[in-house]
Known about the structure:
Radius of gyration of chain A: 19 Å
Number of helices of chain A: 7
Strand content of chain A: 25-35%
CATH superfamily of the largest domain in chain A: Hotdog Thioesterase
Oligomer: homodimer
Amino acid sequence: MGRDRQGTGAARHLRGAPRRGRRTQGTRRDRSSAGPGGRARHHGLGCPGDERLRRGRARSLASGDEGLARQDRLRRSRGHPPGGAHRWAGGGHLFQAPHPGPCLLGRARGEVPVKGPLLREGFRVRSYDARPDASLRIDRLCDYLQEAAGRHAQAMGLSMERLMREGYAWVLERLHLEIDGLPRAGEEVVVETWPAGAERLFAHRDFLLLRDGQVLARARSRWLVLSLERRRAVRLPDFVRGHPVAERPRAIGGPYARLAEPTWTSREQLRTVRPSDLDPVGHVNNVAYVRWILDALAAGAEPAVPAALDVAFRAEARGGDTVCVRVQEGTPANHAVAHHAVAHHAIHRPSDGRTLLLAATRHRPS
Amino acid sequence: MGRDRQGTGAARHLRGAPRRGRRTQGTRRDRSSAGPGGRARHHGLGCPGDERLRRGRARSLASGDEGLARQDRLRRSRGHPPGGAHRWAGGGHLFQAPHPGPCLLGRARGEVPVKGPLLREGFRVRSYDARPDASLRIDRLCDYLQEAAGRHAQAMGLSMERLMREGYAWVLERLHLEIDGLPRAGEEVVVETWPAGAERLFAHRDFLLLRDGQVLARARSRWLVLSLERRRAVRLPDFVRGHPVAERPRAIGGPYARLAEPTWTSREQLRTVRPSDLDPVGHVNNVAYVRWILDALAAGAEPAVPAALDVAFRAEARGGDTVCVRVQEGTPANHAVAHHAVAHHAIHRPSDGRTLLLAATRHRPS
């Protein structure tokens, strides 16, 4: 218990970044090991030490066509039709919205047998989880995913508590949602989640949201393991890499898109971090950032409902911080256009100029 | 559907107050009829027309001793020991924390048969409902209560939708919680709720929060019915009064305490109403106000955990409003003392000076 406490305290002030992180998504994938999950943390990627990582990632993502071709080959080798990945361009950035093979979209539950670890967690959509039109709020959906990930990580012996006993902590680095439909208040839904592979630094976890066996939304996430002692991301420990992954297609295929700072500002909001924004381990909850993005995005009084959301967590805000939430919509000539196809988001902390988060949202043409 | 929409739109701008409201709690109680519940609304009590109501209520509450004596007589007539009600004085205001009879506190589930309508709604405490110490957050507890009330009102044919079809809307006017303990993340709890009586203007609904059959928290609430056409609270319609109430002791006995404006300000915070603060019908959710109070109360980074909370809802905030949340703690000489026994709260809207809410919280001596 004493070590746990110490670990929690240390983790609050964690800064730093991986130093030997040239192998990112798009390089060698080791699908035979590791399972991510656990509670969400943020992690600073802003110090000079991670410049090489960023250059490496930029290179691997610059070759986006190669990534898509590789993804197609992979899909064909599994018997899926090629060309499942579409691109959505906006503001000069790539925001991919690939579609899964037919075995994931619209399938009946249990139709595809899954080998390896998988968790199914049921939720009843409560009225307090719903928007004015009674559909599930996106931030609450993220709550559901995080809850399922935490329970699965615990069941696999990879809970945050276990990692902290070993001197580590889980850090959510990326979350990407593709939303085809949303359940309504009073309905029962199931979140399926599974560990989806591991690289040197990253553990992958995927999600499906199902209602009556039909897929409503898909998500993928990427997690780092932080050394509490060295205060930076480290190579995944063997006890993490040693866990099996589920043998099923990724919920969302293809490489992650490159997210960049908004190049103009359509709207910005200052927010103060409140105690109610903090998660069970005392950090700003990842879902709070999602709520801030959607609050800033909403043109009217109602929460915004994007069809896709892709968030890169870069550093954490602390209780009492003032943060600036920026949105870039439309075009440089007409950036007052609300609900343009793609919007870009950034959250900064004005006191030190640090970028806490970059994100993109995609909206259905109205 | 068309009428519903219209009703919702009209309700957003509802103002006004009951005109013939001299019979308040402490006057004649009709326990043979009416069932409150449904979604939460706010209601303006600030216009000149309700001055008589406030005077009437002040008179009935000024005779607090009579109220307590009457409560004792009632308890004795039901076979409960007298003297269950204690008072907590702070800042010159009365904040009563009565204890229930032995049949409610610490009883096993099902021990006391209940006649009349009662709803039991189960909840699993999710990690996103929890504080850093893993105990249930108070604002999430209020979410649970509101969810149970809404489901019960619907089951009784008194849902917000039904009322709106008849040209009315439910308005939560008062919520009082007494908290003996809180469940932890991962635990299963049950909320029991029942209609607890009706007066001319008010419908009462009570709640228990149970874990393994043991009572952890008790709550009572008071609801008004608003006429959408006349834009003010009206005498409870016959179809509301005609419903039976549960024959069980009140979860919290005695008259409601008088809540007054803080007489000094220990701390104040400005907040902007965000889309995520709005409830399914597009108003600021009652629970959002509770969250704002607890955020302003928290001395450190962690959400505050009062042992009791008593909130009087007076008028509603709208999306985009800036509101000022004030806390009065300690004494006039030393009001920096955090977590003094009783704190008093008010939420105002600076743009028109309107008082949206008054509240008191009680804390266990640390």
